[in-house]
Amino acid sequence: EPMAPWEGPAMAGVMNEFADADSGYGFLIECVQHLPGLFASIVPWLGGERHKELAAQYGNRADWVVLVKDRGTGTVTIGPDGEAVHTYPFDDELDRKHLREGIAASIRMQEAAGAQQIYLSGQRFEPWRRGDDLEAYIAQVNEIPIGPGGTPVFSAHQMCSAPLGADPATSVANPSGELHDTRGVWIADASGMPTCSGVNPMITTMALAHRTATNLLAADA
């Protein structure tokens, strides 16, 4: 059926059944609006003819993303050139488990919704087709490595790289948003969040910015 993935709201549906799968950590499954450039970057490359066949069905696609509330952490350091160096290995076993579980749940949901073909971004084999063994396909997908050269992992909502907190040893700014060691410098974006929210943080970020701005104005008064 025509899905027109380039139209409508960016995210019109979220499945949150597994948001608290393991002691506050888990994953969401979200639908996503996109344009042909994203499609071209994730469709399996199976040769020119097969690529053309899949591209011709672009308007019938329905894509989902797995949003993991990560327990793992990364680092932001200063390199020899004075620029920030960001490292995020995504090596926490619980996070990797939740990504795998989210992918499997997404596949089963697509099958239940009537999908005729299913494929995972980064796979290098034929899509699942209706009538194929679904569990065998999931097992094959689980063999794909996570990360570069395999299933791509990305972030659209970077958080907690300069967290607010009372202890300078574990936070960059105080609870009001002002840096511990530099007066007059304030944190007002998602980097100030103390932990990962586990959800798209637009409203949370707006609230944090409003709170920090209020504190800044009060400090200058």
Protein architecture, described:
It is a single chain. The chain is 29% helix and 11% strand. The strands form three sheets. A three-stranded antiparallel β-sheet has the order 1-2-3, with helices on one face. The protein starts with 13 loop residues before the first strand and ends with a helix. A hairpin with a 5-residue loop joins strand 4 (75-78) and strand 5 (84-87). It has five helices and seven strands; from the N terminus they run E-E-H-H-E-E-E-H-E-E-H-H. The longest helix is centred in the middle third of the chain and has 20 residues, at 93-112. It is α+β, with helices and mostly antiparallel strands.
Helix fraction by DSSP (H/I, runs of at least 4): 25-40%
The strand order across the widest sheet is 1-2-3
- Average of per-residue pLDDT values: 92
**General shape:** elongated
How large, in whole angstroms, is the Cα Rg?
Answer: 21 Å
Unreliable sequence segments: none
Give a short overview.
This protein is an alpha+beta fold.
Question: Helix and strand layout, with pairings?
Answer:
Layout: E1 14-15, E2 27-31, H1 36-42, H2 48-56, E3 64-68, E4 75-78, E5 84-87, H3 93-112, E6 117-118, E7 128-129, H4 134-141, H5 202-220
Antiparallel strand pairs: 1-2, 2-3, 4-5, 6-7
Feature tags:
221 residues; alpha+beta; two-stranded antiparallel ribbon; elongated
